[in-house]
Q: What sequence folds into this?
């Protein structure tokens, strides 16, 4: 009996130590759990929206939770279009994204509380805002710095039998200069495309960038026998490259283009206007 009592005395400190450590670990889990975030407003996962703006609303698991977020855009190959940085952490619980181009997006958000970062959650959605037949810019919104270049495409949406078109692009030469004009990716993959004027003429390019206007003539043709061809469907039919020449950072918002008369869709685009 005495031997058994000594065994209890020997193992008692060890049992107390294990109990103490378990209690500490349990207390730590209760007091410092990972913060959580829940998206309470916005399109459902993989839902399609017929608008070029979207609002997301969310809430955290604690009153002192902060959040950071970002919006990714996926191109037609399924890759992220460009590097997108996270927002700064803040206590904001909603965000509105405007001037979204048609396509696939992913909204991502992370919570932070007591310097502990929680797991990221996301919501994928599709923007299908342009109802054809129509013409539109891509991208609708560009943020550029002085001496940087960016591309601006003109897309056709659900157009039937486009074979020839003429359009005028107006822009503010104090903000932007045109550096190149190229055939669109959609027209290039299907047919040959002739474009006038050619911007390899330095004097002509200087004139265009002085007056801020370029008139474009384009014809689609079969590359085998050079006969006229027509293109139907949706995709890019023109691609411009611009150089930002203003000193300040520019946020350029292009507008959606809609032809005034249905008959013009086969032959003419309405004038394209860049913001001043």
A:
């Amino acid at each position: 009996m005495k031997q058994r009592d000594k065994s209890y005395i020997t193992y008692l400190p060890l049992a107390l130590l294990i109990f103490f450590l378990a209690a500490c670990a349990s207390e730590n889990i209760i007091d410092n759990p990972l913060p959580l975030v829940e998206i309470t407003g916005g399109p459902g996962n993989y839902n399609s929206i017929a608008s070029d703006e979207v609002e997301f609303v969310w809430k955290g698991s604690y009153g002192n939770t902060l959040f950071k977020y970002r919006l990714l855009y996926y191109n037609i190959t399924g890759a992220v279009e460009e590097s997108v940085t996270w927002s700064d952490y803040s206590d904001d619980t909603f965000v509105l994204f405007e001037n979204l181009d048609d396509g696939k997006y992913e909204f991502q958000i992370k919570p932070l509380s007591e310097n502990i970062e929680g797991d990221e959650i996301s919501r994928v959605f599709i923007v299908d805002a342009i109802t054809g037949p129509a013409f539109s810019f891509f991208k609708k919104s560009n943020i550029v710095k002085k001496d940087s270049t960016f591309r601006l495409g003109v897309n056709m949406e659900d157009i039937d039998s486009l074979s020839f078109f003429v359009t005028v692009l107006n822009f503010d030469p104090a903000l932007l200069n045109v550096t190149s004009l190229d055939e669109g990716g959609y027209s290039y993959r299907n047919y040959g495309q002739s474009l006038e004027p050619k911007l390899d003429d330095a004097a002509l390019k200087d004139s265009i960038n002085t007056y801020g206007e370029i008139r474009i003539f384009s014809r689609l043709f079969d590359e085998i026998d050079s006969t006229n061809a027509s293109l139907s469907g949706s995709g890019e039919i023109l691609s411009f490259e611009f150089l930002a020449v203003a000193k300040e950072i520019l946020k350029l918002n292009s507008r959606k283009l809609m032809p005034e008369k249905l008959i013009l869709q086969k032959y003419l685009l309405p004038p394209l206007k860049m913001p001043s």
Summary: Helices lie at 2-31, 185-190, 202-211.
